[in-house]
Design goal:
Number of domains: 1
Strand content: 25-35%
Number of helices: 3
Shape: elongated
Oligomer: single chain
Helix content: 10-25%
Distance between the termini: 34 Å
Structural class: alpha+beta
């Protein structure tokens, strides 16, 4: 019988001062079947203005472009979370990630 537990993908992007975008995601295990709605609600409380975050505080890879200029900022943007069957790319569970 297939395990019904699914992983959660945390999707985000970096938008530089010229509005060029680079997208990324980190996939976490979800052993306690946390709902997408609950994960999204918790994340919004941790974001700046409900949308932005410092990648170092979230401990996720930076999506900065190689050639940054003085107008570029340091914040990434949260896009969404979604259920996925893809393999985890991070050792943390989603619940551990949400405790940031």
């Amino acid at each position: 019988m297939k395990d019904l537990k699914s992983n959660i993908s945390f999707n985000y992007l970096y938008r530089d001062a010229s509005n060029f975008k680079q997208f990324g995601s980190v996939i976490f295990t979800n052993p306690n079947n946390l709902s997408i709605e609950e994960a999204d609600s918790i994340l919004h409380l941790k974001l700046i203005d409900g949308e932005y975050f410092d990648h170092t505080k979230f401990d996720v890879p930076s999506l900065f472009f190689k050639d940054r200029n003085v107008d570029d900022h340091n914040l990434h943007e949260y896009r969404n979370v979604e259920i996925t069957d893809e393999n985890p790319t991070d050792k943390r569970t989603m619940e551990v990630f949400l405790k940031l």
